[in-house]
Amino acid sequence: MTLNEIVKIQSVIDNRAIASDTFHNLNTIFYFSKSKNKKIKLGDMHIDHFLRAIKIYNKDKNFIDFETQEIIEQQKNTLKKIKRLLNE
Fold it and tell me: In angstroms, rounded to a whole number, what is the distance separating the alpha carbons of residues 80 and 36?
């Protein structure tokens, strides 16, 4: 079941229209599938594939954030050393 199908089912169950920004996002935001080597609209993704993609994205993002934080800490330490040398 794709995200587009899920949102349509939700609108029927809730007896409400799909929010325009939700529909817009599902059809204009893409995910690059490494296995298929192509971009896929979020709305065309099956829910299990979407959840896996989010998990991978968060894992990669957290790794990048960790590396960035490490670089920031190194720069802070370097600045402290420079300040200390300038004060001597």
Answer: 48
* 72 pLDDT above the threshold of 80: no
Report which of 28, 31, 1, 7 is spatially closest to residue 19, judged by C-alpha positions.
7
**Strands annotated E in the chain:** 30-33, 38-41
Query: What type of residue sits at position 54?
Result: I
Which secondary structure element, helix H or strand E, spans residue 36, and what is its range?
none
Structure tokens at 73: 């800490």
Joined together, the tokens standing for residue 24 give 């817009």
pTM exceeds cut of 0.90: no
Burial class (CB in 10 A: 0-12, 13-18, 19+), 43: buried
Question: What is the gyration radius of the CA atoms in the chain, in angstroms?
Answer: 22
How far is CA 28 from each of CA 15, 48, 74, rounded to the nearest angstrom? Answer: 25, 20, 39
